[in-house]
Amino acid sequence: MSAYFATRPRTRLGLLLTPPLLWLVVAYLGSIVLLLLTAFWTVNGFTGRAEPAFQFGNLVAVVTDPLYRDVALRTLLVALSVTVIDAVVAFPMAFYMAKIASPRNRAFFLVAVTTPLWASYLAKAYAWRVLFEPNGPIDIVTGGHSPGYGLPATVVTLAYLWLPYMVIPLYAGFDRVPASLLEASADLGASTGRTVRSVVLPLVFPAIAAGSIFTFSLSFGDYIAVTIVGGKTQLLANLIYGQLVTANNQPLAAALSIVPLLAVILYLLAMRRTGALENV
Amino acid sequence: MTRRVKFSAAIAVAAAIAVTIAGCSSGSGGGGSSSAADSLPKVAEQKKLGANESTLNLIVWAGYAENGSNDPTVDWVTPFVKQTGCQVNAKTAGTSDEMVQLMRTGQYDGVSASGDATLRLIYGGDVAPVNTSLVPNYTTISDFLKLKAWNSAGGKMYGIPHGWGANLLMYNTTAVTTAPDSWSAVFDDSSTYAGKVTAYDSPIYIADAALYLKTKDPSLGISDPYSLTEKQLTAAVDVLKKQNANVGEYWSDYTKAVQAFESGTSVIGTTWQVIANLIASDGKVNVKTVVPKEGVTGWSDTWMIAAKAKHPNCMYQWMNWITSAKVNAQVAEWFGEAPAQTLACAETSDPAFCNSYHATDAAYAANIHYWTTPQTTCVDGSGKTNCTAYSEWTTKWQQIKG
């Protein structure tokens, strides 16, 4: 067997690469291409079936309808807020874990941060539903000033759900910052704030960017947490789901789904410009 | 250099294979999806029953296929499995739209479809006409449910009627002290319960607002809440946009509706009797349901068999089982609806059940505005073509929610 492949490197390479490439091209890119194609289709008004055609009505609707614009902006706002909150919360956590905690505690904190990932997404979202309930824990702690179900609850829940995806890359980033640099900065008379600004931040920025790609893209596509804690709020993915399942309008849903696709591609390009993707 | 050439050659080969495969699958998929616009697809009915398959895959409304997991005493699936050997897999759907979508996957044998899904399924070629002679219990189904616009086409039954009922107004008796008798409690006067109002999350709910306007504003000239002109639709949408300011949550998942009322998130809104029953059996809050004076929208459900059902014999067995007197009575009492089977009235645990639900009262049944799919050709039978279609309703519904 191995003798057969030893003399036939091309066959070996071909067999090795075909399954992953099939996966990438057929299952991944293929499905996206089919999705983009159906965006040009029409829907039979009576039976509700999608029928092949080539027209731009769906794309025009996505661009011109104020509803889609408003909801897309709201979704962008949610994704950015979640990313900023996660970055701000994860920064001191990761710094403590990588630079201050003893090796034993470090292992403990790493486990503690990743443990929530073992619990079901729905269980965690419903836990937040209970927390935000009328007369629920948050209501009691804040003296009746709970924001209740809505956009703030959605942002908090998503920030909670995706926090590990920010902490872990950031921890790896801090881990790679030599302690000697921090000491040198202090020896040269820099304050803690100055050290963080001029030494630590530039060094861990690629890690923050890497984490933000997770938090941003996961938040941008989420539609389950918002139905659980978002009250009557709808985000972009809810509209896509609604067009697909409720309205049975697959072409319009496909056209709408180009928006998050573009948003994430643009975000990735922006991150690339910062140089964040080169060393991660 | 040579290594790179080999590598790109391998990619090219793999890509060529991939494109061929993708081309084949999309080609066959595209051919099957085109259908004639308004003509009735030709789907043959089953001529005779064969041996039971071992499985039955159903799409059901909540509470239609109980196997004892919600309440150990409420179970009509287990005896069916024992009797027929058909293992039942029931998928609960929250809206008619979801049901249509699920049926189109081709993975299900049958569905308990309401009138706003039936015609879409019939004309989409997703369901087959039913040979009623293979369903013995069909003969004693209420006559006013047979060969109706929402369950038949071309003079053929496309299913077996199951039961019917109304969408009611439910309120928490602690929070809502004066019993409402009008839908205005959730529309024009909804600000009284700002942030605690709930509504059904489906475009078909626009009909509830239209029904309210029919009485409140006769100048609009609404006769049927599913046949709305552009102007009438706009008026109904305005009512719902105002309501949206006071809505805390919409519901389409009935368990979410139960939880929202029990936690105090919602105190008033549209409901199904089964939701009120579940809240009552949990006993955490007190709720009441009323039929407001403007009248109610409602549903009339029909068990339909998929055109390409993989287990048609089990489905026929199920259609006969679910409309048998005893089982139909059980479902009706659990869900809170009028049974379609006339003999079921003798089998209910509460002897007055059929009277209170007006089960055999054709005149009462005629007064409920049953869910129907709105079309440009008005569905009120007037023959006019200036009505708004369901696709427009769905767009409006997303705009209402903003």
- CATH topology name of the largest domain in chain B: D-Maltodextrin-Binding Protein, domain 2
Largest interface by Cβ-Cβ < 8 Å: A-B, 44 and 53 residues
The overall pLDDT of chain A, averaged over residues, is 89
How would the global form of chain B be characterised? globular
Write up what this structure looks like.
- Chain A is mostly helical.
- Chain A has 13 helices and two strands, in the order ααββααααααααααα.
- In chain A, strands 1-2 form a two-stranded antiparallel ribbon.
- In chain A, helix 6 crosses helix 8 (151-175), helix 9 crosses helix 10 (192-221) and helix 10 (192-221) packs antiparallel against helix 13.
- The longest helix of chain A is centred in the N-terminal third of the chain and has 35 residues, at 66-100.
- Chain A is globular.
- The two termini of chain A are 38 Å apart.
- The model of chain A has no long low-confidence stretch (mean pLDDT 89).
- Chain B is an alpha/beta fold.
- Chain B folds into two domains: 55-164 and 298-370, 3-Layer(aba) Sandwich (D-Maltodextrin-Binding Protein, domain 2), CATH 3.40.190; 168-295 and 375-401, 3-Layer(aba) Sandwich (D-Maltodextrin-Binding Protein, domain 2).
- Chain B contains 13 helices and 15 strands.
- In chain B, strands 1, 2, 3, 4, 7, 13, 14 and 15 form an eight-stranded mixed beta sheet that branches.
- In chain B, a hairpin with a 2-residue loop joins strand 5 (152-153) and strand 6.
- Chain B is globular.
- Residues 1-37 of chain B have low confidence and may be disordered.
- The chains are: A mainly alpha (280), B alpha/beta (402).
- At the A-B interface, helix 2, strand 2, helix 4 and helix 12 of A face helix 1, helix 3, strand 10 and helix 13 of B.
